[in-house]
Amino acid sequence: MKKITSYCRITDHQVILNGKKLEIAFSGDPGSSRLTEIYRYLDVGYPKFHKMDNLSKAGFLASEMVLGSLNYDRETPDGSTSVVFANKSASLDDDKRFQETIKPDNYYPSPAVFVYTLPNIVTGEVAIRNKILGETSFFILEDFDAEKMHIFIEWAFSSPGISRVLCGWTEYLDGHCDVLVMMMEKESSNGMDYNILNINQLY
Amino acid sequence: MIFKLSDNIISSLGFTTNANYNAVLEGKSGIAPGKDATGNAIAVSRIDPDKMEENFRNTFKTKKIYTLPEQAMLLSAHIAMKEAGIKASSERTCFVLSSTKGNIHLLGLSSHDFGENRIHLWHTAGLLAGFFGNPNIPVTVSNACISGACAQIAAIHLLEQDTYDHVVVTGMDLAPDFIVSGFQSFKSLDEERCRPFDARRKGLNLGEAAATIVYGKEKRKGISLISGSIRNDANHISGPSRTGEGLYRALQTTLGNVPASDIGFISAHGTATPYNDQMEAVAFSRAGLGSTPVFSLKAQFGHTLGAAGILESVIATKALEQGLVLPSAGYEEPGIEGAINVSTTLSKTDKRFCLKTLSGFGGCNAVLLFENAL
To answer: B187: nearest CA in chain A?
Structure first.
């Protein structure tokens, strides 16, 4: 039976991993520095993190916590896991940053900023970090919608050889973070039942 | 398996599938000299905004104002749905939008009257469904350059769900300063017409397009989409894998039990960047497709981003229906290591299957398998 075997929720004011609030002493206002504070708290040690845009940082951190809690083996190439994320604002947070670099009087576009003007880059970052060779997909919805997300997850499970789907809502815009990342496993005896009601409750 | 009812392409080469397909057969290209935001020369395939506006106003008697990408998207969907004869407003019809940047040009305007939601892709998709009176929440995929394949894979799932009879898959992307300057910063643009798979290839051209395919689940003769899959390289966010791992895996998964020898041709991604084209050759060879004819359509249309997977599927399946393998435009001198059979002339095939492949930023790869049923 399919189960939700781990989940992580990141909002502006708190981080919750499998129902437990992490005791992170945030300083200052919500914003991108909070993501760095979470990174330090977790002691991740992945310098590429600092190059990421905020959307990728947020999705990456939640994925780190979910996979970490499952003792996921990130060294062995894994063709049986897929990553399916969705959000409302796509990459608008980084789009705005890039737009600032292409003003006629101040023109200095950088590939390091431009590459993140695609929302699916966060799924690539998670795949690279964890050697995930399954599907990576990104969908846009007007608002968090557990029913639709449940459908997208089912689609990912229907692809041959896929037994786990790391999925969730990864929204980041103008300093506000709204993330829920969950691991869905096809055959598991542990965890919560995988259904729309439970996805809604975790959000 | 789902069945193609109709299609449309809007590009610099024309506003109908036939106009675009015939232009390809005649060896035409929509790529022309253009300028970037700072006045530098680029080569780009642009939709003429005046022609677009005129066609839009002649087709729809609306006084409302739509952006250029919206006009292209709406007109493309309209033409395809009209040909299919389906009811757009039916609750048994669902829309799927494929776009990477949609209305991103609005971000560069100091002010506009479109409201703050207009830049969002969910709004663009809602506008597509709403314009035609459709009651369902559309599916919006934004998976970089493979979006057009992802949208068609979504169509397979939607039609298998038994909730819908018809799915309208529309892809759209233009080439505003935002996108041009980004690709320029990557130094991945060729100032001249691009040369996919050629020894002298040095980068891609951007292209503007909207393209639509209407799919149904009722068995019929002609083109069907049998399967499709998406796999990641887990290698680099902006560089293709040297081993073609994700594309190889997507090819294997999509082919399933269909032997490589049954594939008439591959409509490749073929962007004409040095690394992409080489990566594709490695993946094709690993999948036993080293001798299968391969062509790219990027030297005719440019890289149309979110529209590419749909536009190129339309042209490829049209060729499959006619038993033709298209020549790969811009290709003269072999420039790929390893086994790859780049198509150099218009030739015939009696095989019933073809593949469409795409790869994109974020390390994602997608493959679609089409069949022409007699």
So the answer is: A111
